[in-house]
Amino acid sequence: MKQTWIAAVAALGMASPALAADEIKLQLKWVTQAQFAGYYVALENGYYEEADLDVTIMPGGPDIAPTQVIAGGGADVIVEWMPAALSARENGLPLVNIAQPYKSSGMMLTCWKDAGIEGPEDLDNRTLGVWFFGNEFPFLAWMSHLDIGTDGKAEGSVEVLKQGFNVDPLLQRQADCISTMTYNEYGQVLDAGVDPSELITFKYEDQGVAMLEDGLYVLEENLEDPAYVDKMARFVAASMQGWKWAEENPDDAAMIVLDYDETGAQTEAHQIRMMGEVAKLTAGSNGALDPADYQRTVDTLLAGGSDPVITKQPEGAWTHVVSDAALK
Description:
Homodimer. Belongs to the NMT1/THI5 family. Helix content is 39%, strand content 15%. The radius of gyration is 20 Å and the shape is globular. The chain has 328 residues and is α/β, with parallel strands linked by helices. Strand 6, helix 6 (137-145) and strand 7 form a beta-alpha-beta unit. The protein folds into 2 domains: 23-104 and 212-327, D-Maltodextrin-Binding Protein, domain 2 (3-Layer(aba) Sandwich); 107-207, D-Maltodextrin-Binding Protein, domain 2, CATH 3.40.190.10. Helix 9 (226-248) packs across helix 10 (250-260).
């Protein structure tokens, strides 16, 4: 696989004119961390430069919605979860998935075992922490799948606690369960001194409601330009080269991410652990979206009961045009 991507990047780079490198602004979904290691590796190891690209990686944050950034012209391509992208598309922002570096979902619900929760049916009449800004869509679809409302703590419903980007609601017993990612918040809970035996987790993958995360999205109108498609093909090829290198060199990839963390908030131990977990999610992806994964995401979203995330089958929400060119 590594050799395939190296060859792809070389071939695509040779096809490009030896002029000024093409500029690309990439908006990440969250802050600089190993969740996005492949892009930082591609930048640091010179894969973008070899592909005749000048890539600017823009970290996200709690007040940054990638969909809004690209809608305002602030980015050429964004990292986003598919539920948020499809919701934005249905509401008039024509986003298209051009590549899917993440094959699996890392989202789960982490609960106190001593709260008496043993299975999904025990989530009823509880207080559950949920992220918003588009991250709530998988949770809402799952609750609908379980026929559990989200109108407040009562029989047949749950109290949805708008969760900040930390694990305090669980540690302080404000919620029976909180949203976590396998590669991030779950580790933060353990770092706080909680033993895994005290917890019970529900991975969305295991519950059959997993949705695609961390795909690459662009505006549909741009794909009409062959030069733009060529530029994005080189970007995807170089990025996937970065991801495969990161999978094979997780500790070194984590250190590269740390070098680009201008906040100084990340730690070596946390990033190494994160990269190890992220590698499990990107494994098996060659960059091309699997239509079966896409349809599973859509079907789960459409099963959203009285308050679905999307109301109809999307059309034109993904394409292999870019990934096919990248894989040549």
